[in-house]
Design brief:
Strand order of the largest sheet of chain B: 1-4
Number of domains of chain C: 2
CATH superfamily of the largest domain in chain C: P-loop containing nucleotide triphosphate hydrolases
Chains: A mainly alpha, B mainly alpha, C alpha/beta
Strand order of the largest sheet of chain C: 6-7-8-3-9-10
Number of strands of chain B: 4
Distance between the termini of chain C: 35 Å
CATH architecture of the largest domain in chain C: 3-Layer(aba) Sandwich
Distance between the termini of chain B: 40 Å
Family (chain C): Belongs to the ABC transporter superfamily.
InterPro entries (chain C): AAA+_ATPase, ABC_transporter-like_ATP-bd, ABC_transporter-like_CS, BCAA_Transport_ATP-bd_LivF, P-loop_NTPase
CATH class of the largest domain in chain C: Alpha Beta
Strand content of chain C: 25-35%
Order of helices and strands of chain B: HHHHEEEHHHHEHHH
Keywords (chain C): Amino-acid transport, ATP-binding, Nucleotide-binding, Transport
GO molecular function, one term (chain C): branched-chain amino acid transmembrane transporter activity
Number of strands of chain C: 10
Radius of gyration of chain C: 17 Å
Number of helices of chain B: 11
CATH topology of the largest domain in chain C: Rossmann fold
Oligomer: heterotrimer
Organism (chain C): Thioclava atlantica
Helix content of chain B: over 70%
Chain lengths: 394, 306, 235
């Protein structure tokens, strides 16, 4: 685990890069074991191990070393992370359920990254994340069953429709601040689910079937064959979700580090001062809101295709709160924080079935504790640094 | 349109308006004294309704049959419990975050609302299913042509309006109300006047939460049902009503509550074929109102509190 | 008659020290003043006494009773009242409601009415406007309400923070005259001011605060005649 508290790293005999690569490999093996773990005892043990490892990494200064590795060798480290993600997918190969969980987590991460740009960078909290996710899913349901639009384009359409419907909210959201804009998104989040439930065209409470993904003639319902072994068809979705998550991560990182990201930051910190320095506050907010909704919509569209059946109950206000929880638990504006929190919020209850029923309760209590005792989140965002050649840390 | 039916709509609208106003007044009081949105308010209301329901079961269990005795017991226990809950929330979740970014209090109370909701769903016996709330009020009705005026409705509305008037008198005519208004207008000067600030904040949260419990019991008696999710919608409606009325203004909150009920009723009259969409319509109107008048119909001035 | 004693007081906001090792005494039945320029820490001293910004170290006693760091409403309960800087009306309340709040801790309604009548005798103008919203009054009228509100509590000690701030010279003169008359009723006054000449004219004893340190003290007459202090701090 990484942490931005810059303690002096305890001199480890290995250089930061080597330590970092070993840590990534360890995380990958851990993830693989975790996804495959069957018994609740095993899962609990692994969760405990992760907590201990995270705590130990902070105590020994390992996290600081990892921070240095991410900072100085970002190319190699990011490459290693992508490679180990692919390796985990390949190792899971024929396991349907773990692959589905991994993909779900990655798609939630995509949506959470979008929310993070809205909330963490720009300071506009969106309590309708699950609604925009749902808009994407319903778009893909309608388009896959009623039209011949190529499914890859449907992903974009999901994002686009989410952005368009979001545009209806832009006027009230941008014109209002704080509490008032919160009520707009809360109202929309509740409205969306109520609307789906009473709308017969969209299947009412029962929901809709969704067609599968199809890339250039390759139907995602077929499992890919690797060296003579047929793998789970979820490998397709896991790979595409990974691609989407990596793309979203890279884009969001670029956005954060660009001048635009700086503008968004300044809007969050002080709207009036930003306006005085010539930042177009309205444009910054519209940009952040639209960007976030597009990401949620695209992720939702792929999610719909993957689970092939969607219903209003998957896109409730509580689900929106769960997405906000991911952003808050990870740390506002911290992208790796969102990734870690997505793992905790999505994967842990899926693996610990006893928790599944209690997940809204569990995470609401966790967020309350977080807000009281560690409001900066699990992996707080680093401070921007503008030394020559330097970049915002993580 | 049939006069009788119109009367029915009107009676229903007044009933809803009273309930919404009671919830909105709470939001306005909290915002007045502390500048915070306590979003768990709706779920606190739900706790109030469930406490009342549980009290009723207890009363029946010890063999008391008289509905009036039961009603008084239900109201007293429910309001007292909920008021205490409100004060506890203020003390342990809201006041500690007073100097944090204001959004954190909104978030922490949203999460608390979820926790309360989920807590009842998971831990109340058979909590995920609606509970049949007893009809404790006389159900005799007065027939005026096709319009029937039921005694229980009349009692409920009168009692609700009496509570609103009582709250208003409390705020504007008593020493406690004077202190609440002083804290709302200028926290520090209020302290210099010798007002025990923390105490006033806790009492205010207790009063607002007690009013919500009353609205929750009203809701249970009117619909003869309580369920774990009832607070989410009522809370959101109360919040919207408070905002429409310009947060922090007690008359605005009352007006907002009746306006919201009016909108829903008009929606139901105008779009009878789409009655399923009445909540969608109401929230659509809230969003549109926010676009048109971002700070509510009665604009909030920083000095215009409570 | 009552007194305040402050010993070795340190007060800080976050990390910035504002008061450093301040010791002073407010003698019973007299007007003691604290002079100093903007940012010298004068208002912080008042806030420390009232418990609004509790001190980091040191001791504040009222008639021998330790009130260091006590919550504000307890300090007020010990017979201290304050006329805050900038008058601080409750703008959406009437004049009588503002006055009523001054006597918040008084439970005897008859006593409150009696005191209010006395305030109206001192400021006949307020009697005419008792139902007007305080926020709609002129600065001079608000100053009257503020002083009246401070007297409503029937304090033994009155802290007055910059009464001349933002007022026309005519009102300033009038206010100082009233403060002088407050002493005659046996109330101990601690007056914090920037307006050196007029303050020393009515005070019995004075302290000078600069950069968080006490730099001079003496009887009002001595301070008036101390050319060095004048040159160094009041230029």
């Amino acid at each position: 685990m990484k942490d931005d508290v810059m303690k002096t790293p305890i001199p480890v005999s290995l250089p930061p890069l080597a330590t970092g690569l070993i840590a990534v490999a360890a995380c990958a093996i851990f993830g693989w074991l975790f996804l495959l773990a069957e018994s609740e005892v095993a899962v609990l043990g692994l969760v405990l191990l992760a907590v201990l490892a995270g705590w130990g990494a902070q105590k020994t200064g390992l996290s600081a070393t990892l921070g240095t590795a991410m900072h100085q060798h970002s190319g190699a480290m990011n490459g290693a992370i992508v490679a180990s993600l692919l390796a985990v997918i390949a190792l899971l190969g024929t396991e349907h359920f773990p692959l589905l969980m991994l993909s779900t987590m990655l798609l939630y991460l995509v949506a959470a990254l979008g929310l993070n740009v809205q909330f963490g960078l720009t300071g506009m909290v969106n309590f309708a994340g699950a609604a925009f996710f749902g808009i994407g899913a319903y778009t893909s349901a309608v388009l896959t069953t009623h039209t011949a639009v190529p499914p890859l384009l449907i992903l974009l359409a999901g994002g686009l429709i989410a952005a368009l419907i979001g545009a209806l909210l832009i006027v009230p959201v941008v014109r209002t601040a704080g509490h008032y804009s919160a009520v707009v998104t809360i109202a929309f989040g509740v409205l969306f689910k109520t609307f789906l439930e009473v709308n017969e065209v969209l299947g009412g409470p029962q929901g809709l079937m969704v067609g599968s993904m199809n890339v250039f003639g390759w139907d995602f319902n077929n499992g890919p064959v690797l060296m003579g072994h047929e793998m789970s068809f979820y490998v397709n979705y896991a790979l595409l979700s990974s691609g989407l998550a990596i793309l979203a991560f890279a884009l969001t990182r670029r956005l954060e580090r660009s001048w635009l990201g700086l503008a968004l930051d300044s809007v969050r910190l002080d709207e009036t001062a930003s306006a005085c320095f010539g930042i177009n506050v309205v444009r910054a907010k519209v940009l952040a809101f639209t960007y976030g909704n597009i990401l949620a919509g695209i992720a939702g569209a792929l999610y719909g295709m993957m689970i092939s059946f969607i219903a209003p109950n998957s896109f409730t206000f509580s689900d929106s709160l769960l997405m906000v929880s991911i952003v808050l638990l990870g740390g506002l504006g911290s992208l790796w924080g969102s990734a870690l929190a997505a793992v905790i919020v999505v994967l842990v209850p899926e693996k610990l079935q006893i928790l599944q029923e209690y997940r809204f309760l569990l995470f609401s209590v966790l967020v309350i504790a977080m807000l009281l005792f560690r409001p900066q989140g699990l992996l707080p965002r680093g401070v921007r640094s503008y030394f020559p050649g330097g970049r915002a840390q993580r | 349109m049939d006069i009788g039916l119109l009367g029915q709509y009107l009676a229903n609208g007044v009933m809803l308006g009273t309930m919404y106003a009671l919830v909105a007044v709470g939001f306005t009081l909290f915002f007045g004294v502390l500048d915070v949105i306590k979003f768990s308010h709706g779920d606190v209301l739900m706790i109030g309704a469930f406490t009342g329901f549980t009290t009723y079961l207890g009363i029946v269990a010890i063999g008391i049959e008289n509905p009036w005795v039961a009603l008084v017991a239900v109201l007293v226990v429910s309001i007292a419990t909920t008021a205490a809950l409100g004060a506890l929330i203020a003390r342990y979740l809201v006041l500690p975050l007073k100097s944090a970014p204001p959004l954190n209090i909104l978030l922490i109370t949203l999460m608390l609302g979820t926790a309360l909701r989920e807590g009842v769903r998971l831990f109340y016996p058979d909590g995920s299913n609606p509970k049949a709330f007893p009809a404790l009020l006389p159900t005799a009705s007065l027939e005026l042509g096709s319009f029937s005026l039921r005694a229980d409705s009349v009692i409920l509305v009168s009692a609700g309006i009496a509570v609103i008037i009582g709250l208003n008198l409390l705020i504007n005519r008593t020493r406690l109300g004077l202190a609440i208004r002083a804290v709302a207008q200028d926290e520090e000067t209020a302290k210099i006047m010798g007002i025990n600030y923390t105490m006033i904040v806790l009492v205010t949260f207790a009063i607002g939460s007690g009013a919500a419990a009353f609205a929750g019991i009203m809701n249970g008696l009117y619909y003869n049902e309580v369920n774990f999710g009832m607070g989410l919608l009522l809370g959101l409606i109360g919040f919207s009503a408070a905002i429409i009325g310009g947060l922090g203004n007690i008359y605005g909150a009352i007006l907002g509550g009746f306006l919201f009920a009016g909108l829903q009723t008009v929606g139901a009259v105008a779009l009878p074929f789409a009655s399923a969409y009445k909540d969608v319509f109401a929230f659509g109107v809230v969003i549109a109102l926010m676009a048109w008048k971002p700070t509510g119909l009665i604009a909030e001035r920083s000095s215009d509190r409570v | 008659m009552s007194s305040i004693k402050i010993e070795n007081l340190y007060t800080a906001y976050d990390k910035a020290d504002v008061l450093m090792d301040v010791s002073l005494a407010v003698e019973p039945g007299r007007i003691t003043c604290l002079l100093g320029s903007n940012g010298a820490g004068k208002s912080t001293l008042i806030r420390s006494i009232l418990g609004l910004t509790p001190p980091r170290a040191g001791r504040i006693t009222v008639d021998g009773k330790d009130i260091t760091g006590a919550p504000t409403h307890k300090v007020i309960g010990d017979g201290i009242a304050c006329i805050p800087e900038g008058r601080r009306m409750f703008p959406k309340m009437t004049v009588s409601e503002n006055l009523r709040l001054g006597a918040y801790q008084v439970r005897d309604e008859a006593l409150i009415r009696e005191r209010m009548e006395r305030v109206f005798e001192t400021f006949p103008r307020l009697a005419e406007r008792r139902d007007q919203l305080a926020g709609t009054m002129s600065g001079g009228e608000q100053a009257m309400v503020s002083i009246g509100r401070g007297l409503m509590a029937g304090p033994r000690i009155l802290l007055i923070d910059e009464p001349s701030l933002g007022l026309s010279p005519l009102y300033v003169k009038e206010n100082f005259r009233i403060i002088e008359s407050i002493r005659e009723t046996g109330i101990t006054v601690f007056l914090v001011e920037q307006n050196v000449r007029q303050t020393l004219a009515i005070s019995d004893y004075g302290y000078v605060l600069s950069g968080g340190h006490l730099v001079a003290q003496g009887s009002a007459e001595d301070l008036r005649n101390d050319k060095e202090v004048y040159a160094a701090y009041f230029g």
